[in-house]
Each structure stands twice: as C-alpha cells, then as structure tokens.
Design goal:
By secondary structure, the chain is of the alpha/beta class. The protein folds into 5 domains: 169 residues, no CATH class; 112 residues, no CATH class; 82 residues, Threonyl-tRNA Synthetase, Chain A, domain 2 (2-Layer Sandwich); 216 residues, P-loop containing nucleotide triphosphate hydrolases (Rossmann fold), CATH 3.40.50.300; 91 residues, Winged helix-like DNA-binding domain superfamily/Winged helix DNA-binding domain (Arc Repressor Mutant, subunit A, Orthogonal Bundle). It has 34 helices and 15 strands. It has a 9-stranded mixed sheet. Strands 1-2-4-3 form a 4-stranded antiparallel sheet. Helix 3 packs across helix 4, helix 5 packs antiparallel against helix 6 and helix 23 packs parallel to helix 26. The protein is elongated. It starts with a helix and ends with a helix. The N terminus is likely disordered. The structure holds adenosine-5'-triphosphate. Adenosine-5'-triphosphate binds next to helix 21. The site of adenosine-5'-triphosphate has 14 residues, from helix 21. Belongs to the FtsK/SpoIIIE/SftA family. It is a multi-pass membrane protein. It is found in: Cell membrane.
Length: 824
Amino acid sequence: MGKKKTESKSKSFAYAIGLRNILESETTGFFTGLFLLALAVITIIAMVSYLYTGQADQSVLESMRPGEWLNQHHEFANYGGSIGALTSYYLMTVNFGFPAFIIPFFIILAALKLMHVYSVNLWKWFLCLAVIMIWSSVALATFLSPFAGDMVFNPGGAHGLFCKQFLENLIGPPGLTAVLLIVALAFLTYLTSETIEVVRKALNPVKYIRNKVKFTVTDKTGDDADDDVSTFDGYVEEETVVNHAATQEEDEAPRVVDLTDTTQGQQPNSAAEPGDTLHVTNANEVKGDDTTLVIEKTKQEDEATGNIVGEEDKSQAPINPWDPFTKYKFPALTLLKRYDTNASIDMDEIKANNARIIEVLNSFGVQISRINATVGPTVTLYEITPAEGVRISKIRGLEADIALSLSALGIRIIAPIPGKGTIGIEVPNKNPQIVSMESVLNSKKFQTTKMALPMALGKTITNEVFMVDLAKIPHLLVAGATGMGKSVGLNAIITSLLYKKHPNELKFVLVDPKKVEFSVYSRITSHYMAALPENEEEPIITDVQKVVRTLNSLCKLMDHRYDLLKKAQVKKIDEYNDKFIHHKLKLTDGHEYMPYIVVIIDEFGDLIMTAGKEIELPIARIAQLARAVGIHMIIATQRPTTKIITGNIKANFPGRMAFRVASQIDSRTILDRTGAEQLVGRGDMLFLSGGDPVRVQCAFIDTPEIEGVNEHIEAQAGPVEPMELPEPDDPQGGVGGPSGDSNLGSLDPFFDEAARAIVITQQGSTSMIQRRFSIGYNRAGRLMDQLEAAGIVGAAQGSKPREVLIADENTLNVTLAQVHGARG
Ligand SMILES: Nc1ncnc2c1ncn2[C@@H]1O[C@H](COP(=O)(O)OP(=O)(O)OP(=O)(O)O)[C@@H](O)[C@H]1O
C-alpha cells in the first residue's frame, strides 16, 4: 500500500512539474537526436584524425596514468582531443579496425530517426550493421593484414585479429575463408533471395551462357507450360521449368530452333503467330542440323512464335509472390474440431410445426395447397404454396399476426420467397446443430474457390456453405447484441482468410478496444499484420489515438497505391499485381507487390463515441476509395444506432452481417429492414449484400482452435515483422474545420463527397452543393474553387453551372488520390 502511495505521489509530482511531458515530447526527441548527431560527427572526425595521429597518440594511450586523459598538457595530437583519441583507440585498435566507422554511422541513423527526419527500422539496421561490422572486421584482419605495413592498428582491429587467429587455429586458413564466405552468402540471402540464383548461375556458368542464347525450345512449350502451373494460380514453378528444359535437351530439342528459319524460308511474307502449328510439323524436318546454325537462328524462332520457355524466358518466369517463403504450409483442417453433423431429423417436431402453421394460416383465411420443409442446421424453412386465388400480398399483410400466433422466438416470414411464388416461414429447431468451421472449410466450394478474399461464413438454411468475397463486397458492417455471436463471426472470417491467403498476400490491421478479443492473434503478428513502426511491438491496436493514426496512415497508403496504379496504367489491385508478377512493372519505379489489407475494427461504437469525426472521416474516405487498391474494412458494433452507424458510414459499407439485435430499430439501422431482432442468437445471422438478406448459421470456431491455427502459422518460416505502414500526415492538415481558402493545402471536409456528387450527377452547380450539404453560399463557393483547382470542374461561367471535367467515378478516384497524395 505504502509503496503504491509513494509511486502515485512521485507520478503526480512528475506530472506536476511537467517532467513527463518533457520526457515524452517530440522536442526532447529532437534534441536528443541532435546531440547524438553531433556526437557521431565528432567521433567520425576523431576516427579519421586517428588514422594520421594514432601513431603519436598510441604510446601515450598505452602508458597512460590516471587523470592523463584530461589532456591538461596537450599530450594528444588527435583532432578530437584526448577523448577523441581514446574513443578511436578503443573502437579501431582494440575492437573493430576500419569497420568501426559503422558505429558512428548507426548513431547518425538513430539520431535522424529521433529527429523524425527518416523513419527507419532501427532494430533491422542494428542487426545488419552489426553483422557487417563483425564480419568485415574478421575479413579485413584475414585478407588485409599482410598489406597493413606499419599501420598503427590492424585493419580488422584486435577483435578481427583475435577471431581470425582463433578460427585459423581451429579450422585452418581454408576453413576460415569458407566460414567467411558462407556467412556472407547467408547474410546476402537474408537481404535478397536472388543471391541463391546468382550463386547457382556462378556454379554453372556454362548452362547460364548456353541458355542465354536460347538453346532449349520445343514445339510443346506452350502446352506443357500450361500443365506445369503450380498449386497457386498462374505461376510456373522454377524447378518445373528447369526439368522441362532438361527433357527438351534430351530430345535434341535445341535443333528445333532452326525450324523458324525454315518456316521463314517457306513463307517469307507471313509472320508466324504465337501458337502457330507450323513449327510442330517442321520440327522433324530440321533434326540433325549444325549446332552453330541452331544457336544463331534460335533468336528468330523466339521472336516469331513468342511461345518459348527457355532459360531466357525462365528469368522472365512470373515472379512468385510467395517468395521467399515458398515453402509456407497452410494450416491443416485437422487443427479444427469436428462436430457430429449427422443428427437425425426430428420428424415429430416437423409434423407439429407443420400442423400449427396450417392451423394459424387457416385461422386467417389463408388456404394452403402444399408445404415443404427444409431442415437446416439451426432453422427449418417451411415453404408454403398458397392455394389458388390466395394473394401473396394478403399474407404479407398478416406477417406480424402469423409470427405472433406461432409464438416462437426466431420466426421469420419471407413472403414471397424471392424468385418463387411461395411463402417461407423459418422456424428454429429445438436441437440446433453446431456448424463447425471445419465442415465449412472442408467443402469443395471453399477449397476450389477463386475468390480473392474468400470468407466462409457458415451454412444457409438449405445446408449449403455460404461464402462471400470480401474483395467484391468490399466493406462489411457487423452488428449484434452482446453474446449473439459477433466475435465468433469475426474469428470465422479471419480463419477462412488465413486458410487461403499466404502471409505475403494478406495483411490484417486489427483494432480491439476491448483488448481481449483479438489478443489470440498476437502470435501471428509478424506473418499477417500491418502496423505503424511505433506499433510494431504490439500491432493489435487497443488505443483510440493509435487507431486514428493508423487510419490516417492507411489513407496515405491508399493514396500511394493509387499513384502506383496510375503509373502502371491499371485500375485495380489484381490487374496491378498481375502486371507486377509478369515483369511488366519496374522495381526501380517504386513498384512492389501489393498484399490485400483487411482492417477489422471491433467495438466500433466505443471508438466513435470517444473519437467521433477523427475516426469517422478516415474510415469514410477509405471505404469510398480503397476498394480498388485492396484495402477492405470490417467494422463491428453491439449498438447499431444511427449515432454510431452514421449515414456516411452506412452508405459506404454495402455488406451487412446482422446477428440478433435488441430491437426493430437496430435491425433497420443495420439492414434497412426488420428481421434481425427475430433471430435466435448463437451465430444465427442475416447477411445482406445488395438484394435480399440470406439467413445463415455462422460457422463456430473456439479459442483453442484459433490458437492451434496460429501456432501452426507461427512455426512456419515467414515475415519476421509486421508490414510497415507509412507515417501518417499531420491529422490537422485539412481534415478539420471548414476551410478558409481555396488552395488545396486545406481542403474542405466535404471535398471528396462534393466531388463525387458532382461527377455522379455531372452537374457543377454551386447551389446543388449548398443544398446537398446544407452549407452557406460562401463555403460552397470556396468548395467549388477547390474542386476547380483540383481539375474536377472547370472555371466559373457566371450564373451557369461549371463544366464537369471528370467523366466517371474511377477517374475521380485516381484524381482524388493524387490530390491527397500531393498534399501528403
Ligand atoms: N456460430 C455459433 N455457433 C454456436 N454457438 C455460437 C456461435 N456463435 C456464438 N456462439 C455462442 O455464443 C457465445 C457468445 O458468442 P460471442 O462471444 O461471439 O458473442 P459476441 O456477440 O461477440 O458477444 P460480445 O459482444 O459480448 O463479445 C459463444 O461463447 C458461443 O457459446
């Protein structure tokens, strides 16, 4: 108790004098950085000076008596004084020799990071530089010592010399050289997996040169390449291509190359088309040709058929986006629990319900000609065909009465069932079955799906696996009262994505204000999470301010990705990635493979209540624009009120997943209709994505299962840290209050929405903007000026509406991304 009191006292004291603020402030970071920068520069000066003055200083240093380092009598010649001489002596003579220069270089990096000049991953740099310094210290001591002459220190320092001698005594000079080589290669492979390919080429230069001149070609190339597509769509596995080439060699295939010439000789004026069969016929004719001739002519065949897989093409084989984790193994289905799904149908229950339905409908004067019952996992659908002459609209009018008369929880009446002239009455089963995640993922539908982001959510009333593509939806709103299965639903979504997507293809941003919901995923943060550098230690975000920064960072990433799409001249992430893996985009232009990013926000209500617009605006922006660049959002809330799910959010989240909610009003907020208040809970849900809602029993997955899956993923070789999100811009910049001028530096908050409204309606009228956003004439005018500056509308033409310069929403998305990007 006493200790606690003292602690809180000292805490409040620190608060009171502002010490805490000082320590945590950006200014302190800046000045610490500045201090380190100066320190590093002085150290470098001292070290350079030591190269010339070391000789003179060394004897003083080695016979130094206490207090001498104070340099009162100017014993040291070093330009950095006695401390400079001393530091250089320790760093260069006693430790690492020349590579010791890396130490002040690292301090400079740390200083620049503290000063917010660069955002670098210091741990990564530390690790890499430490390896380089230690390795080069030993390497210099090994290879440069003989040439060091009368240098005052060994080029690799005493450390390098010691390691060299130790290893030489242990394994001899060849062993030492081998160790140095292997360490260097391992390190370079860590930096880039291309190292392995370079080594392979170096070890087999003959094959490399031979293939450079396109020696291996067969007429079957195109067909075989098709067959050789590996387990993931569209990429030819490297080994396959190598084997393929080898087979061709055995078949004396290189001679085939010559046939292009023959072909051209025969048909001088007709250019061969890719896939042309001519080369197949001619292949036999040219067997036995002279080898030199073959090599010369091959180039022409390559141009003519465009259908060749030789080594040259192999270097152009599609980039494998799983690289370097190509051996990654997806979790097995055995990690998930199986439940008994063969529970027999309770005929007594069905008959009883049948009789009640007929009785109730008859009592309202509705005659029935037929009833069909479809037994689902938790609900049975009674499909009623009304007798001739009974109007469906009459039954629709009686919906509430019928539900009341049947008086069971969870009854939902669908009148009519879409596409059929029948009425559906869903009645919950007395003994509901659990739909296991295993049964859903173990379905052909899931396993063979080509969806970009498949979410296997559960089973429909007719026992079909219900799956949707998040990439198409593209953002999802999840609501449900507490305990109705929301968290299980989110886990089912995450799990189905984990079973289909490689860590290089998908990253999550998880927001968990409750702090306990997603903590189970902390084991896969390196593999599957994206985070700001400052959150890399704990990428699952639980703090409101961090959420705001992360959302702003996602906006920035979105703008950056739009720039890349524009450069690549494509409209969507899948087209972009396709171009990227087929070498149509240059790495030097900043292109990179884009993983999908799925942002999942639990307890959205809590967030919006605390942070309001700060959260809502970036979410609405991402929701409006991010679909094309592969950023998708799922937000979940217990309280689907209009304060939380505002019109802005709702309009941009077309996918809705409603578990049981407390009231009809809540159901209307989430689904735009009633029905969700009638669900039975425990994963019973309505899914809506345009059209009519579908009743689905959500797949069940519990924490031990998730832990098992995560443990498996964690054990796989994969990324060692979360994907880094860009530092967000200053949140004040442009997203706050009304703008005072028309320049694009401080955009009006309605800028994006106004631009969209104008492009959709193709009407550049200020009064339309005024009406639509209920703003004054002056503000609408300024907004128009900003839209003009952004090139969305033309100049004012008196009282006439302005000309709209952008024809469609896609082009607008690109323009908006540029506007925001340019401001960033
Ligand atoms: N799909 C399902 N199948 C069977 N039971 C389920 C299903 N989903 C949820 N349940 C049951 O309901 C309980 C509560 O589910 P869950 O934790 O997902 O609720 P929730 O809506 O997230 O609640 P809260 O908002 O309080 O976190 C589970 O522990 C489980 O027993």
